[in-house]
Amino acid sequence: MSFHSAVIQKLLNTNAHIGRRVTANHFKIFSEGTRNGVSIVDSDKTLICIRNACDFIGHLSRNNARLLFVNTNSLFDEIIAQMTKAIGIKHDTTWRLGGFLTNSSSPRRFRGRNKKFNICAPHAPDCIVIFDTERKSSVIKEANRLQIPVVGLVDSSMPWETYSKITYPVPANDSVEFVYLFCNLITKTILKEKKEAMAVRGEGTVTRGDVEQDDLIDQTAQKFVFPYDKLPAIPEDISKTKELLDKLVIVKFNGSLGTTIGFKGPKCTMEIGGGLSCLDLIIDQIEALNAKYGSDIPLFLVNTVDAHRKILQFLAKHPNKNIHSVEQSTNDLKDASPYTPSSAKGQGHKDEMDSFNLAEAIFPLVNNRKLDILSSQGREYILLLGSDNLGCVIDPKILNYLVQNHIELCLEVTPKSSAKEESKYSQDEAKTPILTPKTNWRFVDTMWMNIESVESLVAKGRLTISKLFDQQFALSVPNSRYLPVEATSDLFLLQSDLYTFVEGTPTRNTARENPSDPSIQLGPVFRNVDDFKERFKAIPSILGLDSLKVTGDVWFGTGITLKGKVSIHAGLGVRIVIPDGTVLENRTIARQKDLEGSSS
User: Fold this and answer.
1) Family, per the entry (predicted)?
2) Do 152 and 198 fall into the same domain?
3) CA within 20 to 30 Å of 127's CA: 159, 166, 496, 588, which one?
4) pTM for the whole thing?
5) 600 lies in some domain
6) For 78-101, what is each residue's pLDDT tens digit?
7) pLDDT digits (tens, 9 = 90+) for 245-264
8) Are residues 328 and 413 in the same domain?
9) Whole domain around residue 189: which residue ranges?
10) First CA to last CA across the chain, in angstroms?
């Protein structure tokens, strides 16, 4: 693929080519026509306009010109704040005051309007970059009056009065993804010009600050992740939420058996607690939503050959429900084999994003024409569950945001603990990093897909999660939405008094003060799920527990309470039995005698 084709593909991935339903006459030079009543923007012309705008901004930066970035869309705030920080420009917000340009030459006359006006820039900017042009026509008028050049995003419905005053128009859909791409190009352009200017002046010495700034750009250029906390609320009108849910279908991929923990059968059918399995919890969630909003969300189970028969037997206890099972065929596996993650092939260069083979979940639906049937029924979005993640919540708020912003694909990710510790910004301001390296994120095996985009992904061979993460929209969700069942230590947490399940959704016990879950390490004798059940008569109370480490031949009674840091190690030939009602707080147990004096 040529460089030009690669850039055009990036523009298409950001939906830059999707215009509005109205196409003004002066915008037709950028239009390729319409489809379904929506204007289609020519991506080649968008690219040309981006180059012209960046060349102009670069020329100004070479001469230390003053740039002003104007935005009123809260979705873009974090992107622009990170950009201005990276290029070393103050994020001036004095433009929010009406007349800030035309009155800037005589600020003393207007002290009474806003005292903060006195600390604004004493000179007018040399260029204004506007990201939501339609909302800030007043700024454009002032800039035109003072003959200040304007770089702005324009769309097919913009009136001529506004469009004619923009010096460097960039025709594109002002989606979050495109604004991020545009800001990234501006950032790289300005830093490149600054480096070249330093080289001309002989200022070749690179300081630690310069290195950190370069590192910031290299890292932030890798991924923009949108915080879950900033999603708008769903409409209060129940009928509108029902219309939203009527566009959704849930697809659960059952590709793993429980053999790693000694369970004979599909892991999704293994009991988690209270007689419920992971599959039961998903069905309970769907039934709760259907009852609340009057919807009828279908559930499709894509099963491997090994799991299909037992899952059908399991579903016998859920009769007369909108549940459908699809078995992988030989052709499905053959089609999916080119996309097998490197870890499954035994290769060392594993990408942590590729936790499962996405193609194995997609091809059975495509080859069996299931997607065409769903599309004909008015279904537009798929919520794909790739593993037995009990923290997954079918959230109408996410679906509403995707539909409103025409986002075709969304991956749910959560920050790794190391990323959270290193990022002061994530802790103090937005709870999750906004522009961070890909390695800071963990895919939670949950993704949302527009049904119409699936065939495009198949045709272009984009069925690898790591590549989709690089190119598509990602949503940072709380750690509470990632509760995998990979070992008996996970069962220990989920079966304890730390969690209860309400309508299929895990609910954390509010009595626990520590926001994070305790660290649980169980030795090899607990690895098998049957042995795990036998060694615990009942799961201890762990509301005050920080960490638990158990190794060797250890048995637990009922009514036990663990607090603080507890370590129990039974050496070779040693058997330790924790009596009923024992309370262990910050204790290290190595033999039965160490339990003497424990409160009970």
Assistant:
1) Belongs to the universal ribosomal protein uS2 family.
2) yes
3) 159
4) 0.62
5) no
6) 888 888 888 877 665 555 555 555
7) 999 999 999 877 778 888 88
8) yes
9) 3-221
10) 70
